[in-house]
Amino acid sequence: MDKLVIDGGRKLYGKLLAQSAKNSVLPLLAASILTDERVTIFDVPAISDVSCMAQILRELGAEVNFSGGDVVIDSAKATEHRISSALTRELRSSVFMLGSLLTRFRRAACAYPGGCEIGLRPIDLHLNALKRMGARIEEREGYILCSCDVLKGAEIALDFPSVGATENILLAAVKADGTTRIEGAAKEPEIVDLQQFLNAMGAKIEGAGTDTIAIEGVERLRGIEYRPMKDRIEAGTYLLACAVCGGEVEVEGVRPDCLGLLLHKLRENGCKIHTKNDKIRLASGGRLKCNRKIETMPFPGFPTDLQAQATALNASAEGCARIVENLFETRYKYVPELRKMGADIEVDGRNAFVRGVARLHGASVTCGDLRGGAALVIAALGAEGVSDVLDLSHLDRGYAGLSENLKSLGANIRRVRV
Ligand code: EPZ
């Protein structure tokens, strides 16, 4: 068990290249079993969610080998269609496997997916869509059992632009009999990356990035080599860290238009931001103004995955802020931990009312989920004194080399064995 020891107050200076996007690499790994030819994904991040998805693929009988930051998947010998409950409970993304497994084997079985405890996280949109495409679905003792004779193209209208449901439908539709149209699709950049990956394999998909996507089923998909998009949430996390600490940091690999409203909100805080192609440079004096309001929305709105980190910024900014979390029911579990550092935040359902204090102080705090943990790190970097950040397993799910990257920017941070 490790912890981070952070002595706050250092300004951050330097440059970082963003890692490949966790929320793109995971569906790409699920898509890799759609062909029995070899698939190579370059430069995958060294994070536990990727290791867990690799383990799921191995359980299905695929060969998965990591070499020099790349991963090679050969699923020619895969025959298994069931995923163990241990793995599916650990990883929300296991639910994407339903679409892939039905396409490959006409059968799929997995436990209800796990992942971060940030809300109810139902999968009704996934299951209803698969049923419309001809899947028979039985839910028995916490397991989801799916089967089909053939997957048929269908007209699917999503009540909510669910990222995971949109991705699952793409994975089920690529080789279906006929054409599938999704209305109300999620528009996140990771959906565009998945479309590019599948079309490189020989799929016929168009419209990703808009709310209408059309998928014409094809006979075969071939093996490919692919470099995923960079992680816009990781990039946004480092920009928010620099905003809180002060200094000047440039993050490379993420286009500004992939960050939704984040850059607009950071300018509202008083940060100076310059962008050029996929380079984003932020300069901050450290003492910021609160955002009047931050409301999380599906892309291109303010990303829910940056809500906790932005709340940590507002906790030590001047004035008051109202945060509204519209996507997940309980995505404020990190707030009591911020209060231990002196934050003045009241949570009322989907709202968090923040009164900025002059400065937070160091404390021993515990991560409860991936992005809440990132918020605690950001708060500790800007706080007066030393903080211990515990239960790093949550951070290790999504941030490769977090302490090394922050140290390279000048933070006084150490990862130590507890
Ligand atoms: C993806 O989760 C991301 N995870 C999440 O990132 C991200 O927060 C989320 O999209 C929203 O952008 C991955 O890509 C692996 P959703 P997902 O389906 O697919 C409702 C992180 O920190 N919903 O768009 O689970 C439900 O209310 C993680 O990297 C249904 O009602 O998100 C849910 O809360 C956390 N029925 C909301 O949509 C469904 O069948 C958003 O869910 C599905 C979703």
Could you characterize the architecture of this molecule?
This protein is of the alpha+beta class. It has two domains: 2-19 and 230-417, Enolpyruvate transferase domain (UDP-n-acetylglucosamine1-carboxyvinyl-transferase, Chain); 22-226, Alpha-beta prism (UDP-n-acetylglucosamine1-carboxyvinyl-transferase, Chain). It is 31% helix and 26% strand. α12 (370-382) links the parallel β21 and β22 (386-390). The structure holds ligand EPZ. Ligand EPZ binds at residues 22-23, 26, 92-93, 116, 119, 121-126, 160, 162-165, 186, 304-305, 327-328, 370-371, 398. The site of ligand EPZ has 26 residues, from α1, α5, α6 and α12.
Task: Lay out the secondary structure.
Elements: E1 2-7, E2 12-17, H1 22-31, E3 39-41, H2 48-59, E4 63-67, E5 70-74, H3 85-90, H4 97-105, E6 107-111, H5 124-132, E7 136-140, E8 143-147, E9 155-157, H6 163-173, E10 179-183, H7 189-200, E11 204-206, E12 212-216, E13 225-226, H8 232-245, E14 247-252, H9 262-269, E15 272-276, E16 279-284, E17 293-295, H10 307-315, E18 320-324, H11 335-340, E19 344-348, E20 351-355, E21 364-366, H12 370-382, E22 386-390, H13 393-396, H14 402-408, E23 412-417
Parallel strand pairs: 2-14, 3-13, 9-10, 17-18, 21-22
Antiparallel strand pairs: 1-22, 1-23, 3-5, 4-5, 6-8, 7-8, 10-12, 11-12, 14-16, 15-16, 18-20, 19-20
Helix pairs in contact: 1-2, 1-7, 4-6, 5-6, 8-10, 8-12, 10-12
Ligand EPZ binds next to helix 1, helix 5, helix 6 and helix 12.
